[in-house]
Amino acid sequence: MSEATQHFDVAVVGGGPAGLAAATAVADAGARVALIAPRPSVDDWRTTALLGGSVEFLERHGVWSELGAVAAPLRRMRLVDASGRLFRAPDVTFEAREIGRELFGYNVANGPLVAALSDAVAARADRIVRFEALFKTLGHGGEAALLGLSSGETVSAALVIAADGRKSALREAVGIDVRTWGYPQEALVLTLSHSQPHHDTSIEFHTEAGPFTLVPNGPGRSSLVWMDRPDVIERASALDDAALGLEIERRCGSALGVITVDSPRQRWPISGFQARRLASGRVVLVGEAAHGFPPIGAQGFNLTLRDIERVRDIVRDAMRSSTGKRLDGETAARTYGKARRLDVFGRVTGVDFLNRSLLSDFMPMQLARATGLTLAREVRPVRRLLMRVGLGGR
Ligand SMILES: Cc1cc2nc3c(=O)[nH]c(=O)nc-3n(C[C@H](O)[C@H](O)[C@H](O)COP(=O)(O)OP(=O)(O)OC[C@H]3O[C@@H](n4cnc5c(N)ncnc54)[C@H](O)[C@@H]3O)c2cc1C
């Protein structure tokens, strides 16, 4: 190990929402952290619906105080079958109060979310050192991993958290394979204002080409995630604001009155993938380095925060039992890999099934979907169970 190498308990690679949240959480668990994260180069116009325990997680780490004022409460979720299928499902409305909660959570724009997480990292300058560089190489140095950076620096750490997104270079360096699959879909994302109130209700219109989802984003405002065939998304994103507003209004049956598009549009590819292992050696995978799936039911970042909660708790326990010694990163990584397997597999598989059940022309599949939603509408315990699972319960 060279003289210039700096040693840390934990290194986090990636400065997206997952990396920033992970660095903050493990620093609060008592670790000295290296965050290897170049500054983001593109604006992200998406919003994130933070459900169930995600808001509590952000509160516990002091991030919520900055976000509360710009977050839109989510009280109800309405599913509308807008397909022309033979077996159509009834409309279903899920109410948070039916499971004893005032709210399902809050919708927050990714810009303020990343800014609040970056501020949390900066506020922990005594425990987090940020390297504005890319991770390049992975080596081994005794009881630590050695990370070579694009700046020429080397960082050593007992445990390494890969939060470097879907094309994770760290995942590849540690030799973890990924199972990937595609969908005939793309997503168009934008924010809009509307003349009718949303009543803190998100509406998911299910079409044969995917969900068309409007999520409250402040009074008289919502964010749109429109999943459809790539040619439809291409045509829609080429429309001017007035024509696009009319098209959105038509597609949601004027549920929110007159629509005015008031943000840039972004197109996101839709695919699914899951790392075949969630840990190897001293490296653990979190967020989109570990899993990715279509934005249905707002599961992605909520699952990521559960990854991070688990790694934080493992680091906290390991730091307590390793006083004076180095953190045992290999044991911590092994524990994490086992602990997260079921939740990650369940979400990836569940969202894949939901998306395919919309796209499928197979009659029994359509019948199963319609039956499931009829049960959700008519049978209270089924509806409650679905809500609890949606919020992260098993
Ligand atoms: C349209 C859409 C809507 C969504 N809506 C929701 C929602 O409502 N609720 C929800 O829970 N989830 C939602 N998601 C999912 C959520 O946005 C993602 O889970 C989340 O943004 C992924 O964050 P991440 O930090 O894991 O990855 P990324 O945001 O991709 O961050 C990875 C970071 O790693 C950095 N990086 C890459 N390579 C390196 C390297 N070699 N060295 C150092 N750094 C590197 C990159 O610069 C980047 O900053 C949505 C996703 C989409 C596509």
Describe this structure in words.
The protein has helices at 17-28, 53-60, 64-67, 110-122, 169-173, 230-238, 241-251, 300-321, 329-359, 363-378, 380-390; strands spanning 6-13, 33-36, 47-51, 72-74, 76-81, 92-95, 105-109, 128-131, 135-141, 144-149, 154-162, 178-194, 201-207, 210-216, 221-228, 259-261, 266-275, 279-280, 283-285, 291-292. The protein is an alpha+beta fold and 394 residues long. The strands form 3 sheets. Strands 5, 6, 12, 13, 14, 15, 16, 17 and 20 form a 9-stranded mixed sheet that branches. Strand 10 and strand 11 (154-162) form a beta hairpin. Helix 1 runs parallel beside helix 4, helix 1 (17-28) packs parallel to helix 8 and helix 10 packs across helix 11. It is globular, with a radius of gyration of 22 Å. The N and C termini lie far apart (44 Å). The chain binds flavin-adenine dinucleotide.
Highlighted features:
394 residues; alpha+beta; nine-stranded mixed β-sheet; eight-stranded mixed β-sheet; 11 helices; 30% strand; globular; binds flavin-adenine dinucleotide
Short characterization:
With 394 residues, the chain is of the alpha+beta class. The protein contains eleven helices and 20 strands.
What's the helix count? 11
> How many strands, which pairing sense, and closed or not: the largest β-sheet?
9 strands, mixed
Cα-to-Cα separation, first versus last residue:
44 Å
Structural category is: alpha+beta
Q: Give the mean pLDDT.
A: 94
Helix content: 25-40%
Provide the β-strand percentage band: 25-35%
- Quick one: overall form? globular
Query: How many β-strand runs?
Result: 20
| Unreliable segments of 5+ consecutive residues | none
Which molecules other than protein and nucleic acid are bound? flavin-adenine dinucleotide
Tell me the radius of gyration.
22 Å
